[in-house]
Design brief:
By secondary structure, this protein is of the alpha+beta class. Helix content is about 40%, strand content about 15%. The chain has one domain: Rossmann fold.
Length: about 110
């Protein structure tokens, strides 16, 4: 897909009346099932165009144990999808295993 479109945007084109969001793709199923880390909550970015629905998605992601971050409109999925590919690369090619996630540090 790259920077011109994303999988999420393509789904939105195929289902034009649906509210489509990009979330829950930045870690493996092991972390999704148990996102508890001693050092804090893993970050999970959410992108989507409908603010009302995105609020619900953010609440669900947070309830699952992630630090839910509103990344912006659905077109931001163009940035989030490669982020997931980085996780896959680190897991498979850099032998980091499947029990890691990304965090967001603030000052």
């Amino acid at each position: 897909m790259g920077l011109n479109s994303s999988g999420a945007e393509e789904v939105a084109k195929l289902a034009p009346r649906a509210r489509v969001y990009k979330a829950m793709h930045q870690v493996g199923f092991e972390v999704m099932a148990n996102p508890t880390f001693a050092t804090g909550k893993p970050v999970m970015f959410v992108a989507g165009d409908d603010a009302t629905g995105k609020k619900v998605v953010l609440e669900l992601v947070s309830a699952l144990g992630f630090e839910a971050i509103d990344a912006g409109e659905l077109s931001i999925a163009r940035l989030l999808e490669p982020y997931a590919v980085l996780w896959i690369h680190l897991m498979a090619r850099r032998n980091m295993g499947r029990s890691f996630a990304f965090g967001l540090l603030r000052r």
